């Protein structure tokens, strides 16, 4: 049997639980958010101090990761400035400009610390915009465009897309397959970088002049093989009719001399036919490989002997014919986000 004091304590706990459930738990949960808030602030502060130590040690990428983790733990506007600063130092002006834009919207000017005022924001934004390059992607509507792992919608392809300096990867997926190209942009650099293209549906294949030359040479070799081989076969049949079972009888000396000349001619033609047959087989295989390579390089926007950028620089296909291309436009200072 329970003692009276224990029974009173149990009954009080049950009553408190019922009261909390009926009243929406305002009293029971009052202390919980406060403790969670304190924990989030403590954790974010610890992460930010780790980021400062990493930044002093020159480990900017690790410092950025710590600040991002701190902001995810406690999304306070005071972390946006160091976040933008580290993005800028890591060569990511797009992400830095986005952080500064949030900083402008969420931070009152009176709350901004020295060195992080609106004038400082504008100065940093100007420096970041000077590092931007712009990319315009033109592709058929049915082609999927993926730039640095992000799908670009058809409506946005005609617009200029901001990219960070450094290496980028462009993937085009069309009805004829998948193509990929990589290009590099330096801060403030102006360049035109055609991308790999996926051949549109119904695109025709035009062999390179070298391929045509190989086809002609192979055809000539095959034709010569047929002619010489047919001549050798005809001479062999004539000899078989004149000398059944390879036995020639009742022949005069002049006929025997003509027969020997015919046998020598047949052997010469047969040897030449065998040599030409081997050459024809080798040329046929080589021409087939050359045509396959020519076809594949044309699908990727190249020619047989020129690289992609050189070929496209000599003759860029018009956009209205459905051939995808990538143009990196020149840097324009003062462009908006």
Task: Give a description of the structure.
The chain is α+β, with helices and mostly antiparallel strands and 337 residues long. It has three domains: 32-129, Alpha Horseshoe (Serine Threonine Protein Phosphatase 5, Tetratricopeptide repeat); 133-200 and 322-329, no CATH class; 209-299. The protein has helices at 4-23, 31-56, 60-73, 80-89, 93-106, 118-129, 209-242, 253-299, 308-314; strands at residues 133-138, 144-147, 150-152, 161-163, 166-174, 177-185, 325-329. It has a four-stranded antiparallel β-sheet, with no helix packed on it. It has a three-stranded antiparallel β-sheet with strand order 4-1-7, with no helix packed on it. Strand 5 (166-174) and strand 6 form a beta hairpin. Helix 4 (80-89) packs antiparallel against helix 5 (93-106). It starts with a helix and ends in an 8-residue tail after the last strand.
